[in-house]
Structures are given as structure tokens and as C-alpha cells.
Design brief:
Blueprint: H1 8-26, E1 29-30, H2 31-38, H3 42-54, E2 58-64, E3 72-77, E4 83-90, E5 93-100, E6 105-112, H4 120-135, E7 142-149, E8 152-153, E9 160-161, H5 174-182, E10 186-190, H6 191-202, E11 211-216, E12 220-226, E13 229-230, H7 269-272, H8 274-283, H9 291-299, H10 304-327, E14 331-335, H11 336-355, E15 363-366, H12 373-390
Helix pairs in contact: 2-3, 4-5, 6-12, 8-9, 9-10, 9-11, 10-11
Amino acid sequence: MAGTPGTPRVLRAMNDRAALDLLVAHGPLTRTRLGELTGLSKPTASQLLARLEAAGLVRRTGSVTGRPGPSAQLYEIEPGIAHVAALTAGPDGVTALVADIAGTVVGEHHAPAERGDDGAAELVARAVDGALAAAGLGRDALHRTVIGTPGALDPRTGLLRYAPHLPHWRSPALLDELAEALGTPVVVENDVNLAAVAEQHEGAARGCGNYVLLWADEGVGAAVVLGGTLLRGATGGAGEIGYMPLPGAPLARGGDDATAGPDGGGGFQMLVAAPAVVELARAHGIEARTASEALARAAARPGAGDDVHAELGRRLAVGLAAVVAVVDPELVVLSGAVCRAGGERLRAMVEAELTGLALPRPQLRLSAVEGRPVLAGALRTVLAAAREAVFDTA
């Protein structure tokens, strides 16, 4: 019979979970330190650790030396009890990370989309198998999987929408096909939403429950977090502001059609996505192959380069003004390759332009997540789900 609130069984399970979460957050701890952090007595902490060790959830890992008295035994999470996969998908292929339950990445592999007949499930399986092989693990070690993709999975139809540049991902049975290919539960999540998850836990949005993350890269999107909850919308498409109509941009039509092209034919992304930045720089006499290169060269060229930054800042502010007017966030985080390349100079210009366009005055910060924020968010999301299941001792 399942325990009920307040029973010893439930209280033990709550203490177990609190201890496991502390070991994840702090790393190896002594019985005494774990007791201090949980508020448990030494005998209760000893019983808890013995119980978790017997269940295979924790292990002993050395001892604390160099202080008076007997050395104290250290305990840590048993990392091999479960492994998870975090992936990102795009037109160029799929990148997979495999990590143990403690969060240590043990394998990585990129599967390029070079085989025209590969479906999404086949490509994902190749990426995951490559990462597992790099870690010296088999499929049976994998507990669950989270995949970040452009667009959003429509909960009503099961179709991946707003991602016409991923034609092989448009099966209505996508989740079932992925789960069958991997042998684990699979979640497909919008890549910008995952970047926002990373930002909330390890970046510029820490401690903030109401914020918007603006992503400007090859595509443009936003993640909206209100009251600590990610806003998804009826079709999963909340935040697909790349298609938003704005002055100076052609209207986006047919953006959910696989034949419409990656930009859907218009909208905000036609003004601020990476290809638009390259064109903007070229219009001012600055040749570059990428948005990052264009903004770096613009920064080194007074006059024309100043005009590039000023115009890009104005365009970003106009789009953000529409979002801010509706959502009224406490904070806006600027992320993606375009915003990272523009840096503080671009951020300040967007902030100055936004002041005259919207009544709310949110803080404006650059992303503080290093490396690959989408993968970081996918890993954090899949670890949270796996720990919820694996750490449940009730």
C-alpha cells in the first residue's frame, strides 16, 4: 500500500530525496555535513545513508583527512545507476550527449544529415549510439532522452510544426518512432525553450520567474516564462516570433509548410536572423560570410560599422517592443549567435531603442550560458526527469 502524507514511509522518502538532491548539488558529503544540511540527527542521517547505499543509490568515496580525530567517510551519488541522452537537431544533423545520473557527460557524438533516406528516428539513433559507444555503454544503460529541435511539437496532432527546414521530422507518429528506435521515453522540446531553461539555472535569468529569452541566430524565436512556468500555447508555438509581422519585413506565409523554405517567407526573422545581418552589413560595404564575422568587422569600422549596429539594434528593439507590450517581463535575455556577436554594444543599443517603444521597462541582459545553451538545457531537463523517477524511494 502506498504511503500517505505524514507516515514514516513518506517522511523517509522525503528525507531520502532531500539527501540525494544535496549530493547532486554539492558533490561528496560526510554524514555529519549531510545531517547539518538536512537538519537530521546523526543517527537518522546514518540510517538514511545506509538505506540509500543498500538501494544502490549512493556509494562511499574516500574520506576527509587532515583534521583532528578520525577521518570522516564521504558519500556520493552512484553515477552509474542510470544514464540519459540530451540531443539537439538541425538541418546539418543531430548531436547527442550521454551523461550519468550525477550529470557528468561521458560520451558525445554528432551524426551528420548526409544520408538522404534517413528519417528522424534513424538519425537520432545513430547519434545516440555513437555517444553511447564513446562512453563504453550499451542501449540498456539509457533511461530517457530529451531532444531539442527548432519548431514545436503540437500536442494535439503530434506533428512538429514551425520547422519546415526539417522535412524528415514531420511524421505524426514522431514520438513513438523515436521511443521505439531508442528504447526509452523521449521528449521533443523547442530548442529556444531549452536555452531558456539553461539560462534560468546557470545563466542571466537565475532567480527570475518572469522573463523572455530572445534567440537570434539562423532562425529567430523566443521563450516566455511567466510565474516560473514556460508558456507553450495551444499548438506548442508560443514564442515563434520569427514569423511575427513587422514594418519593413515581408509577411510570413506558409511558414509551416515543408516547401516554404526555412524562413516561411517573411516576418521578424527576415530583419534580424543571421542571413539578414550579413545582408545588412553588405548594404553598408562590409563583406562577411557569417553574422558573427559581419558584426566583428562592423565593430572595427567606424561610420559604416556604427550604422550596422545601430540599425540592427533598432530592428531588434521593434520586435521586442511587441513582445514586451504583451508579456511585460521583468527581464529580457538576448541569446543566439547574433546577440552574442553584437555583445554589450548591441545590447545597449537595443535597450536605448526599446525605451521609447514600450511602456514596460524590463532589464536587458546578454546570455551568460557558456558553450551550447540548447544542449545544456536539454541535459538539465532530462536529468530532472530521470532523477524524479530514479530517486523515488517511496
